[in-house]
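Sample entry (162 residues):
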Amino acid sequence: MLENIEKLSLLVDKLTDYSIKLSSENLALQSNNKYAEDEIAYLKKNFVDQESELASLRAKSKKLEDLVFVLQIDIKKVEEDLRAQLTQKEIVLNEKEVAWSEKEKSHLSCIAKLEEEILSLEHKNAHLRESILSGVDRLKRFKDILPVFDVDVKNGDINGAA
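Predicted structure, serialized as C-alpha cells:
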C-alpha cells in the first residue's frame, strides 16, 4: 500500500507538474491569444484607417481628374482665343502692310510726277533762258543797226542822231 501511495504521490506530483505546465502553457496561450487579438484589432483598425485614407485619396484623385478635365477645356478655349487674336492681328498687319504699300506707291508716284514736272520746268527754264539770250542778242544787233534817237520825255521831243 505504501507503494501504491508512493506511486499515487508520484502520479499526483506528475499531475500537479503537468497541471502547472498546462496552466503555464494556458497562460502563455492566453497571453499569446490576447496579444494576437490585440494585434488583429490593431491590424483591423489600421486596415479600416487605410481603407478610409484610400477612399479619401480616391475622392481627391477624382476631384483632381475633374479639375484637370476642366483645365484642359479652359486651355483649349484660351488656345482658340489666342489663335483668333493672332489671326486677327495677322489680318490687321496685312491690311496695314497693304495700306503702307499703297501709300508708298502713291508717294513714289507723286515723287515721279514731281521729278517729271521739275525736269519739264528745267527744260522750259533752259528754253526761256535761250529765248532771253537770243532776245538780248537781237536787241544788241538792232541797237547796232538802228540810229540812236534822243528822247526828251518831258517835252515829248524826239531828235534823231545824225
